[in-house]
Amino acid sequence: MGSKLYRLRRYVNVDAALRYVEERRHEDGGYCFVSVLNDTNVNDTYYAIKIYKLLDLEFPEKEKTIEFLVSAIQPQTAVVAIAMALEGLALLGAKDMAREKSEIVFTKYNPAEGKFAVGLGGSEEFGTATPLEATYWVTKAFNQIGLKFNPDEKDAIREFVMKFRNGNGYGVKRPTTTMTYQVLFTLYTLGYRPPKSPHFRNCELCGDWGGFTEVPYSLPPYLEPTFYATRGLELQNETPTCPRRHVWFIRQLQNPNGGFRRSLELGISNFQNTYRALAVLDFMDRFL
């Protein structure tokens, strides 16, 4: 069993979180966070893979899930979902299959031609995916499967993401935690070394709260900016100010079914929230 499983058990009920995921695995190898539905999808399947990978656990019936992801990569599939499927295949040890399917990305995403995702479709964060979000996910997937953008593509991506520079961070009307991390990750992955951003520190809540916010000096904290802020601190080789308080925040987010919600208020569990909660705990555990 994975050592992380034992370490994270000190903070939350990891076994319940695993049961929450396992009970939502379907015969086709895919997952759906609403267990009674057979509408399996790439998003939930991707986060199931990420949870097992995070906890250093063997993924169940991975051959079925590999088949599910390969079949999901179609011309009509949204570019973010294609990128998730490619990364998921690599994480399951099917990197060659992912590379064989990677060409389909360029039908929707071709930075050399100024196409930063055609027919964007679904999104992780914003309802409809943004070109920046698509750029982040494609860069992330290509990095995982070992594909490199050529120099012209890299320059085009850099020029595109730098358009979101906004003060000490990145965003459209104002810098946000999500966009700041997505830009910095993209630049770092492509080999650029942008200056460190103080944005993540400015969004950290200690005292009575814990967690991080999307914009500086605001309330309340939510799970998604907490996840992206911790990723940002890690990227910049920085440490959180109050890791114990952030652990407290995450502990409050676990629902009775074992999954995690996004805020201190009532909310439903999903796989995305569950992975992010466990990933934040894994990061904070390094400083406790």
Automatic annotation (TrEMBL):
Start and end residues of each Prenyltransferase alpha-alpha toroid domain: 17-78, 133-284
Gene Ontology molecular function: catalytic activity
Repeat listed as a keyword: yes
Keyword annotations from UniProtKB, A to Z: Repeat
InterPro entries, per database record: Prenyltrans (IPR001330), Terpenoid_cyclase/PrenylTrfase (IPR008930), UCP016175_prenyltrans-rel (IPR016648)
Protein name listed in UniProt: Prenyltransferase alpha-alpha toroid domain-containing protein
Originating species: Thermococcus guaymasensis DSM 11113
Organism lineage string: Archaea, Methanobacteriati, Methanobacteriota, Thermococci, Thermococcales
